[in-house]
Batch of 3 targets.
Target 1
Amino acid sequence: MNLQAKLIVSALCLGALPLSQAADFEEFGRVVRVSPQVEQINRPRQECRTEYVQVQQPQQQRSAGGSIIGGIAGALIGNQVGGGTGRTVATAAGAIAGAVAGDRIDNSNQYQGGGTTEQAVKQCRTVDHWESRTSGYEVTYDYRGRNYTSIMSYDPGERVKLRVSVEPAQR
């Protein structure tokens, strides 16, 4: 071999030297068993329903404004009729008749009874709602005749890619 060929071979060997001392490399292990890691999560939720209940209606208040105005108007009209003591009696009778008429007119459209009616009542409560969720996988694999177990975020299938690291032993 001539000198030039020896130099080229030596240069290639020196260039490959760092590659031959690589401390990490990849291999595959055979998957023996995969167990999903399942956790229970509580997600409370609202359940609501509508019930119809009987409600007592309050009795409405009658307005006194019509009686007062009617009484004043009736007294003024009654005061115009008659003379002496008859005028006083006519004023009193006009005031009474005007008050009754004013009350009927003012309160004619109001419901007076205090009966019952149905009212919708919405009732809600919080109930537990449990869900199962897979949080990872316990993977047992064989590498060079020994079994190893790791927790992984995915199911690797039939084989798992491994990163092998080689380090010198410490004394």
Note: The chain is about 30% helix and 40% strand.
Target 2
Amino acid sequence: MKTLYTATVTTIGGRNGHVQSDNNVLDFEVRMPTGLGGSNNEYTNPEQLFAAGYSACFGSALDLAISQSKIKTGTTSVTSKVSLGQTKEGGYKLAVEMVVNIPDVDLEKAQELADFAHQICPYSNATRGNIDVAIIATNE
């Protein structure tokens, strides 16, 4: 692989810790959400950060897919729902549902574009075969 960019972030304290990027743009506390035994939902958590990164990356892949298809669409959006679950062996695993909205095209074309974006998105390529990812297209 030819490296184009490397992001560097350090976390001290895990899920109840502090996150900081090497350029200091990210500099905040993370905490366990109440759903995982945390005391409140006033902080971000690793699942939200993963969802943010995946949806942003997928959105860029979607823009490329639409551009290559040479069709006109309305403003697109990608909502990433990241779930943390426990395996039967006692470990933990993620699952993702991507809701990809591509207005002004028929639903079949929207799904085709979303599926193509899933093939070229770096997050999708990193997770393929490792976690369940459902791609759901809408055209509202």
Note: The chain has two domains: 1-44, 46-138.
Target 3
Amino acid sequence: MTPAAFDPDAFQVVPARTFEDLRVGEVFRAPSRTLTDAHAAAFQTVSADNHPVHYDAEWARRHGHRAPVVHGLQVLAFTAPGATLFPHFIGEVFISFLELSCTFLAEVHSGDTLYPALTITALEPQGDNGVVVTAATIHNQRGELVLSGRHKYLLRRR
């Protein structure tokens, strides 16, 4: 008995879907993540954001923060579609990430655990393509909404 040939192009994490297969209300979660000082230090290095609110505990306390504040853009990065299974579900129909917006609702500190999710709020057909609109949210371990935003993606239709 000869084993079937392996085809890397057919290897999928989940069965790919099309724009037409998506539904308003579907939720795509990212794994929870507890932030550490190492995460903040790495982001500070990459972003070159050297504001003391992000690394100086005494400066942060003198200015009304209980501890150094994790960079907002680092928190936003946890809503990246690739942090969820969403890109695997849409497979080859993805064209581009069109836009994003967000509001930072509460501070995030080292030791906080974040729970990101993308929820489809609208599906807008546009000729041969379609726009998927998602609500991007992040809650912390206390159930507080720390980030609320919106993403838009352009997908190819059937």
Note: DSSP finds four helices and six strands in the chain.
